[in-house]
Amino acid sequence: MAALGSVRERLGELRLEYIVAHRLAEDNRLKEYNAAVAIQSWFRGCQVRAYLRYLHKMVTVIQKWWRGYVARKYFRSKVKTAYFIMKMNFYNEMAVRIQKRWRGYFVRKYVHNYYALKRYLEGVAIKNNIVRKELDKYADIKSREQAKKKMENEEREKEYHARKMHYLLSTEQVPGIYNSPYRPFPDSMEIRLQKARPLSHKDRPMEKPENPDLLYSDCRDAFSFPIMQPLPPIGMKRPQGPFRDTAEVLQQRYKPLEPTLRVATSISSVEEAREELKRQEWRRGVHDKGFAPFSSFHKTKGYDPLIHTSSDYKQISFVTRAEQPEKWVAKKDFRTVFTPVPLFDKFGKMYSKTGGIV
Amino acid sequence: MSQRQVLQVFEQYQRARTQFVQTVAELATRPQNIETLQNAGVMSLLRPLLLDVVPTIQQTSALALGRLANYNDDLAEAVVKGDILPQLVYSLAEQNRFYKKAAAFVLRAVAKHSPQLAQSIVDCGAVDTLVICLEDFDPGVKESAAWALGYISRHNAELSQAVVDAGAVPLLVLCIQEPEIALKRIAASALSDLSKHSPELAQTVVDAGAIAHLAQMILNPDAKLKRQVLSALSQIAKHSVDLAEMVVEAEIFPVVLTCLKDPDEYVKKNSSTLIREIARHTPELSQLIVNAGGVAAVIDCIGNCSGNVRLPGIMMLGYVAAHSENLAMAVIISKGVPQLAICLSEEAEDHIKAAAAWSLGQIGRHTPEHARAVAVANVLPKLLSLYMDTDSSEDLQVKAKKALKNILQKCTHLPALEPLLHDAPPNILKHVVGQFSKVLPHDSKARRLFVTSGGLKKIQEIVADTGSPLQEYINTINNCFPEEIVRYYSPGYSQSLLERVDHYQPVI
Q1: CATH of B12-166, one of 1.25.10.10, 3.30.70.670, 3.60.140.10, 1.10.101.10
Q2: Given A307, B40, B399, B403, which is the most exposed site by the fewest CB atoms within 10 A?
Q3: Which class in CATH covers the domain with range B252-411?
Q4: What is the pLDDT of residue A341?
């Protein structure tokens, strides 16, 4: 209590003291406040900077790691592609090498085989030579044939000429114009004339048209009318002997006509004969009316019997041989066709086909 | 009046008619009489005589009409306008063989002139009757009917089609097999005329089995028949590969080659035409001909004849060479190039020269080897002169230029190119210099020769536009040589040297 008392004692003093202290504090407040702000701002600035520094550091670390990671990734892929390209290049190069070899081989073997081509061309050259030779031979043969034909024609013409001029041949007494006595040997024409057969009128060869194709008029040549050509001769061979006596043949050829009965008589000869008969009767008849029998006696009249026979006196009924085949001696019937009459007419007067007289 | 006097009048009349037609027929054989006859109205007088009662008069009037119509197309038209054809066609089926022949002659004479006239004959139904005449017994009737059919079908494809539709082809093929040479000839010619227009028509002829019979007749000794047969075969073969192969399959090959040696010019021409038509289609067919030795035979044939007979052979060489380089090489080793060179210089006519130039171009365009073979034959200057010659036809100039270009683009044989440097025009020079620019960088001997022969000098004298291919080629060549020598050969170099002497400051 004492203390309380002391304090109470000193209350005034204390109050004063309190006021002074407040005043002092009030006076310094702004100053202290500013100082405190300055201290606090410095401190907080330090604090924030430190934190920022820390953050930066961390960011750097993160970036460092990230960038490293990305770059490594990129690098790895880059290496991969580079490796791939390198491989590709290598493969390509190898492929080219293989293809080159193969193509060279293929082309040389199949497409442009130089040796085969060379051989082929040589073959063609040989073939050409052969063909040329063959064709030359062919042309040669042809030309020779033509020359031969021409020569033959000339020869034939000369021959014909010689035959035509045969009258110029020299005789024993008179030398011909080709056989001059002043020359050592006769002209070649003379020899030809000697060999030639003189041209006779009978032997003149039939004139042939120049072109056998133009036997018919084809409206190409100069004016001509269509002419029926005779048929060509069937065989050119002459008939061979021995021949009959000429006199006999001539007699045969020029004998007078002997017509057969059938040809000589008229077709209406029967009618004509009947008419003639009638006419004769009419002419000769004493009277016109016919003489008719007045009884039927003649119908019933029988035959008078013969003395030496014992058969019936009647007419025997006629049975032909054909109706009784059982009575035949041979198995065949008689031939019913006889040699016709005209053949008998000709008997001994004509030739038969085989040459004997019928 | 006795009976005899009455009959005498008729006899006289008949004799007069006979004499008239015979005289007219005889007069019609001479060209100078034709106009007079025409003015005298011979047509209207002959027409009633075609219907005369006497067969001889009918025939002779038909003969006279035929001769008149044969002369020119006006008269032929007069025959058509005079309504004579229906009469003829009607009686063609009815009358005897002499009349048939004369009537077919009239039809032939009319059909000969123009497609219109032939069409008018077809319109009046003559073709069917003529085809019936082909079945006649008489070879003369068959021949004149085949002849008329050939003349009708000669003009164009429609007329040929009409003849084919009438069923003429099998009968014509039968006619070829007849023994008469004249009939064979005419039938072969008719087949040739029929098949020349279109592949279809040729196919119908082939279907009738004509080729085998035609091929058999190649060896016939008759030259005129051979001509027609070869012509028919070539007309068949020209249309398509199939037809050509069928012709080849008839084993014509070694046989046709003998025809190339025939003395007859037309046989030669037609056989080389046949070979050409076959070679034209495919490399295989050409190869077949080469293997059969056909090229050598054709080349020999070209050597043995002249003029138009050569033309198909020349073209055949070109066609064979155009197919492939091997075939071209075969032509070269068969000694074709010298022969073509001879043709090029010997022949007078432009179209043959053009064909030879074309063939040479086809031979030389494949490889340097080919071009060298052509160049060695000294063809290039000749081609150049043909190209430069103002008298040459346009076609020849074009062909010569093309051939030159083809050969030059492959040619590495410099000695042959040298002369061209001096007298070629710029458009050819371009190719020549181009070839030099390709060869010189790789060949030192050639470079040396080029300088000594004066080629380099010539190159320096060429004036070329900057930037043109020619200038580039010149630059390439100049780069192959030392600068001094290029400058030495440049024009005006001596002047510039002298100028340098003028301006030179002597060092004392």
Answers
A1: 1.25.10.10
A2: A307
A3: mainly alpha
A4: 65
Cα B75 from Cα B81, distance rounded (Å): 10
Is a pLDDT exceeding 70 seen at residue B78? yes
Q: Cβ(B136)–Cβ(B100) under 8 Å?
A: yes
**Hey, is the C-beta of B148 within 8 angstroms of any chain A C-beta?**
no
Q: Give the Cα separation of B306 and B414 in Å (integer).
A: 33
pLDDT over threshold 70, residue A275:
yes
* Structure confidence by residue, pLDDT tens digits, B414-471: 888 888 888 888 889 999 999 999 999 998 899 988 888 888 888 888 888 888 888 9
Residues B11-69: tens digit of each pLDDT: 999 999 999 999 999 999 998 998 899 889 888 898 889 888 888 898 999 999 999 99
Distance CA A200, CA B16 (A): 42
> Which pLDDT score is estimated for A347?
64
Contact in structure between B176 and B191 (CB atoms under 8 Å)? yes
Q: B156 near B193, Cβ under 8 Å? A: no
Q: Is B293 on the interface with A (CB under 8 A)?
A: yes
**Number of Cα atoms under 13 Å in the Cβ half of residue B325:** 14
Confirm or reject contact between B98 and chain A (CB < 8 A). Answer: yes
pLDDT in tens, A200-226: 766 555 555 554 444 444 555 544 555
**Does the CB of A213 have a partner CB in chain B at under 8 Å?**
yes
3-class DSSP string for B128-158: HHHHHHCCCCCHHHHHHHHHHHHHHHCCCHH
User: CA geometry: angle at B99 spanning B97 and B103, to 5°?
Assistant: 115
ipTM metric: 0.81
pLDDT tens-place string over residues A65-97: 999 999 999 999 999 999 999 999 999 999 999
What is the reported pLDDT for A199?
Answer: 81
Nearest CA in chain A to B183: A213
Using an 8 Å CB-CB cutoff, list chain B residues near A227. Answer: none
- What are the chain A neighbours of B262 within 8 Å (beta carbons)? 142
Q: What is the SS3 string spanning B421-462?
A: HHHCCHHHHHHHHHHHHHHHHHCHHHHHHHHHCCHHHHHHHC
Which of A131, A213, A217 is the closest to B293 by Cβ?
A: A131
Equal CATH topology for B12-166 and B252-411: yes
Q: Nearest to residue B117, comparing CAs of B167, B149, B79, B89? A: B79
Structure tokens at A16: 């004063």
Cα(B8)–Cα(A315) distance, integer angstroms = 74
Query: Looking at residue B466, what is its pLDDT?
Result: 83
- Rounded CA Rg of chain B: 34
Q: Where are the domains of chain B?
A: 12-166, 252-411
Q: What angle do CA B444, B445, B446 make, to 5 degrees?
A: 90
Spatial distance between the Cα atoms of A304 and B248, rounded to a whole number of angstroms: 108
Q: Best of B261, B302, B305 to disrupt the A interface by mutation (most A CBs within 10 Å)?
A: B261
Spatial distance between the Cα atoms of B141 and B59, rounded to a whole number of angstroms: 13
Give the per-residue pLDDT at A175.
84
Reference B354, options B327, B320, B382, B373; nearest CA is: B382
Contact present, B61 and B104 (Cβ < 8 Å): no
Residues of B in contact with A213 (CB under 8 A): 180-182
